[in-house]
Amino acid sequence: MMAFAPPKNTNGPKMQTKMSTWTPLNHQLLNDRVIFEARRALLGKWFDKWMDTQRRRILTVLLERCSLSQQKFSEALDFTTKLPKVLSLYIFSFLDPQSLCHCAQVSWHWKNLTELDHLWMLKCLWFNWYINVSPAPYEQGVWKKHYIQMVKELHVTKPKVNLGKEEFLTSAT
Fold first, then answer.
1. N or C: which end of the chain has fewer CB within 10 A?
2. Span 83-133: which CATH code?
3. Which residues are within 8 A (CB) of 130 and not within 5 positions of it... i.e. 6 or more apart?
């Protein structure tokens, strides 16, 4: 540097964008909008090229850097909107009918999934309950209605009085 040269301005607009790919900008609006999106797109391109082990490793590193409140976001995601429909139905197939009805109250998406005939047909066929007529092509909820009707016909109720073992045997004969 020359002795009589004017001092360099390190706070000017040129220095704010110098090597901006690697260093954060001082100009907050540019950093929030333009640079963040550019970096996010670049990271996405890198992520697409990485192998599975590399992807898992970077995800682990990123999650370790997140606070608990930031991690809650990933825990609060609805699995039925992220997983393929087939996997969501497979998970719901393990639920009993009462739990399926409770799940239908969670959201519209869950209601649509839990009322599909695929789930209720399995419940009906487990008890050998078959439908005598074939439903219309776009008719939905036939198997659920059939399940409800069959349960009503069984008149399944809890006993009003608990009978002892001896009383049950004598009243049955």
1. C
2. 1.20.1280.50
3. 124
